[in-house]
């Protein structure tokens, strides 16, 4: 299957690396001239073109749009010349199926919100499929997305909130990991060991929650030994409004005032 990624920034690079790891696809990309992207193409050995007009020659089966949201509809319009069997998967946050349908009237279009862990095939990918789509096209889309991580299909109106929790969430967790690492350094751990411990702890905590399907509050209760150290830390989190800070981060990232 031939896949072309349009816009090789943070998200586009993560997707190309993840797809490259799976070794299942023939990859190519389009990005305006940029030495960083040329270097990535050389390293990962994918074909790179610098204009949308050149994408037709690549004849992709699947196009993944990872351009900045404000230019995505204009970019899609330039790609309307592609074969009508081309499947478009758009990762642009806030750009709806209808926005794209208006400029790609005859194409198959799916909307996703991925996150940066797709780079290591451990992504969280919210997926909204159109109403009219064949089983074969769904199968093609799932072959691509399953190779990047966990795919969670939702109605399009839920894609924004999935996008905030799954897509923005890694940045919120990164802030917490950074703060925890600083505290560990304050208590004498060298920085590299601090990062390793914190990242391993987050990875294991996530895997346990995902595999057990237990409520986070129940998992927390398993750590808080009576009269122990953890409950003292949890009390400090409550005192400092940690839970509300997280809820407010999600609220604000949805665009809520
Ligand atoms: N960064 C993330 O974690 C996530 C990003 N997204 C979506 O991915 C898209 C890209 O976001 P980032 O990678 O963070 O931005 P970015 O700024 O890192 O990357 C954008 C890339 O698109 C290229 N570009 C700009 N104009 C272009 C055009 N007209 N045609 C082709 N390429 C063009 C830029 O040169 C750059 O390489 C956005 O629509 C965003 O909503 C979605 C989920 C998560
Ligand atoms: O910050 C953003 O707008 C994008 C969408 C989800 C994650 N990054």
TrEMBL record:
Alphabetical keyword list: Amino-acid biosynthesis, Cytoplasm, NADP, Oxidoreductase, Proline biosynthesis
Pathway of action: Amino-acid biosynthesis; L-proline biosynthesis; L-proline from L-glutamate 5-semialdehyde: step 1/1
Alphabetical list of InterPro entries matching this protein: 6-PGluconate_DH-like_C_sf, NAD(P)-bd_dom_sf, P5C_Rdtase_cat_N, P5CR-like_CS, P5CR_dimer, Pyrroline-COOH_reductase
A molecular-function term among this protein's GO annotations: pyrroline-5-carboxylate reductase activity
Catalytic activity: L-proline + NAD(+) = (S)-1-pyrroline-5-carboxylate + NADH + 2 H(+); L-proline + NADP(+) = (S)-1-pyrroline-5-carboxylate + NADPH + 2 H(+)
Key word Ribosomal protein present: no
Main localisation: cytoplasm
A family per Pfam: P5CR_dimer
Occurrences of domain Pyrroline-5-carboxylate reductase catalytic N-terminal (ranges): 2-94
Similarity comment: family membership: Belongs to the pyrroline-5-carboxylate reductase family.
Name assigned to this protein: Pyrroline-5-carboxylate reductase
Protein's organism: Limosilactobacillus walteri
């Amino acid at each position: 299957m031939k896949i072309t990624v349009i816009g090789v920034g943070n998200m586009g690079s993560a997707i190309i690396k993840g797809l490259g790891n799976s070794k299942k696809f023939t990859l190519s990309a389009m990005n305006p001239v940029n030495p960083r992207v040329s270097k990535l193409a050389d390293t990962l050995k994918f074909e790179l073109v610098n204009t949308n007009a050149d994408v037709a020659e690549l004849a992709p089966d699947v196009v993944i749009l990872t351009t900045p949201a404000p230019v995505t509809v204009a970019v899609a319009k330039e790609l309307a010349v592609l074969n009508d069997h081309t499947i478009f998967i758009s990762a642009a946050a806030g750009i709806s199926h209808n926005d794209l349908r208006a400029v790609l009237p005859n194409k198959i279009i799916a909307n996703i919100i991925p996150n940066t862990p797709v780079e290591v095939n451990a992504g969280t990918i919210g997926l909204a499929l159109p109403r009219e789509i064949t089983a074969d096209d769904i199968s093609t889309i799932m072959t691509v997305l399953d190779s990047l991580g966990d795919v969670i299909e939702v109605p399009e109106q839920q894609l924004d909130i999935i996008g905030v929790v799954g897509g923005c969430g890694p940045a919120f967790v990164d802030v917490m990991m950074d703060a925890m690492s600083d505290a560990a350094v304050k208590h004498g751990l060298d920085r590299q060991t601090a990062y390793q411990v914190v990242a391993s702890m987050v990875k294991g905590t996530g895997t346990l929650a995902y595999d057990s399907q237990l409520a986070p509050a129940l998992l927390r209760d398993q750590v808080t030994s009576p009269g122990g150290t953890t409950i003292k830390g949890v009390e400090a989190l409550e005192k400092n409004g940690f839970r509300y800070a997280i809820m407010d981060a999600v609220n604000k990232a949805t665009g809520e005032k």
